[in-house]
Amino acid sequence: MTYFHAFLLGSLQGLTEFLPVSSTAHLVMASRLLGYSDPGGVFTTTIQLGSILAVMWLYRASLAKVLAGLRQDGADRRFALALLVAFLPAVVAGTFFSGYVKAVLYESPRVIGAAFVVGGLIMMAVERFRPTATVRAAEDTPLRSALGIGVAQTLALVPGVSRSGATIVGGMLAGLDRPAAAEFSFFLAMPTMAAAFVHDLLGARGHLSSDRVLEIAVGFVMAFISALLVVKPFLGYVRRSGFVPFAWYRIAVGLALLGAATIGWH
Q1: How many angstroms separate the CA atoms of 120 and 71, rounded?
Q2: Looking at CB atoms within 10 Å, which of 21, 91, 119, 150 has the fewest?
Q3: Are 181 and 171 within 8 A, CB to CB?
């Protein structure tokens, strides 16, 4: 890997992590186009931490409020419990299925392309036929809705589904309005991505070496900066325009991947 490749892949990870377009699929496809092999997945695993820290920094005041209110504020305790309920299904699914997904599904452009297309179609359908929103703030998410969002998040194990896309769609189906669903997705990303980072880093620790430190550092910094720049504008865009443009993007990219796979690209 050159530092330029690290710059590109780090930027791509941060830009796509919190958009409903699947950062994992973008990294897999971009790495193949660049001819880059990531031994043990250590580069991909480490730069995800940059995106996690970016969203934690952006929501640091809200995080501090929730943590400070855990011992005395019923609303903060309920929100923390809702995040825990939403987080647990991913733990169970990841424990049993992540090995198969990474070994088999990550190697299939057809799977990724189909997930892009199906996800885009579902997103468009939910935008048009979603139930009337009854929850206007992420902090007010009921436990039942949080569980539904958590179950939706497990689908993101499949590359191309998108963790943020699955949780936002799940939130909208559970009665959250667009901004609340997006913000709940951001908060849920913190424990989910942190746990995935620790799990993947333990598995990749044998591939860590001093000669990769600089390329990882470049990717990490770029993931942090690009995620920092995209989260708030994305939330503002969603309030104004919804998710249909992202759905069309997913469908277009998915069809392109399916077409490439049909002519032999893999």
Answers
A1: 41
A2: 91
A3: yes
Q: Which amino acid is at 176?
A: L
CA distances from 64 to 58, 71, 72, 110, 116 (A): 12, 13, 14, 43, 36
CB 180 within 8 A of CB 219: no
Q: What is the DSSP string of 43-87?
A: HHHHHHHHHHHHHHHHTHHHHHHHHHHTTT-HHHHHHHHHHHHHH
pLDDT in tens, 61-92: 989 988 888 877 688 889 999 999 999 999 99
Is 16 in contact with 163 (CB distance < 8 Å)?
A: no
Question: What is the rounded CA–CA span in Å between residue 31 and residue 201?
Answer: 19
CB atoms within 10 A of CB 266: 9
Q: Are 135 and 71 in contact (CB under 8 A)?
A: no
Those residues with Cβ within 8 angstroms of residue 34's Cβ, 6 or more apart along the chain or in another chain: 5, 8, 9
Model confidence over 88-146: pLDDT tens digits? 999 999 888 877 777 777 778 899 999 999 999 999 999 999 899 999 999 999 999 99
Tokens of 9: 């892949």
pTM over 0.85: yes
- Three-class DSSP category at 176: strand
Closest CA to 76 of 170, 141, 134: 141
Q: How far apart are CA 69 and CA 192, in angstroms?
A: 22
